Amino acid sequence: MSIVVGARELKNRLGSYLRAARGGTRVIITERGRPVAELHGLAASASALDDRLLRMAAEGLITLPTSPDLPLRTPLRIAAVTLSEAIVEDRRDRV
């Protein structure tokens, strides 16, 4: 099922159209009578995401990881001046 709605009407009653989209209704948005966008609900299941990723990999759009999750890296700590101190030092030369 789909609903066609103008941009102004969508703006005025956005909440009701979001509820409709969440419920599975396609909302086609028009501007001056011409379709410009489509609003629809998102799949919430992880399997739907997995299916989309597999499809994108099959199309060559992405490359799936070949190893399990990478270990988290600890950020490097570099003993240096802060950015603001570096800017002040740089501007001191101009005065």
SSE topology:
Layout: E1 2-6, H1 7-12, H2 14-22, E2 26-31, E3 34-39, H3 46-58, H4 83-92
Parallel strand pairs: 1-2
Antiparallel strand pairs: 2-3
What proportion of the residues form beta strands (DSSP E)? 15-25%
Gyration radius, in Å: 25 Å
**Poorly predicted segments:** none
Number of helical segments with 4 or more residues? 4
Average pLDDT for all residues: 85
The overall strand count is: 3
- The CATH architecture name of the domain at 2-58 reads 3-Layer(aba) Sandwich
Q: What is the fourth-level CATH superfamily of the domain at 2-58?
A: YefM-like domain
Fill in the CATH topology of the domain at 2-58: YefM-like fold
State the shape. Answer: flat
**Can you tell me the CATH class of the domain at 2-58?**
Alpha Beta
* Share of helix, binned: 40-55%
Alpha-beta classification? alpha+beta
N-to-C series of helices and strands: EHHEEHH
Strand sequence of the main sheet, in spatial order? 1-2-3
Alpha-carbon distance between the termini?
69 Å
Main pleated-sheet profile:
3 strands, mixed
From the structure above, extract its key features.
95 residues, alpha+beta, three-stranded mixed β-sheet, 3 strands, single chain, YefM-like fold
Overview of the structural elements:
Strand 2 and strand 3 form a beta hairpin. The protein contains 4 helices and 3 strands, in the order βααββαα. It has helices at residues 7-12, 14-22, 46-58, 83-92; strands at residues 2-6, 26-31, 34-39. It has a domain at 2-58: YefM-like fold, CATH 3.40.1620. Strands 1-2-3 form a 3-stranded mixed beta sheet. The longest helix is centred in the middle third of the chain and has 13 residues, at 46-58. By secondary structure, the protein is α+β, with helices and mostly antiparallel strands.
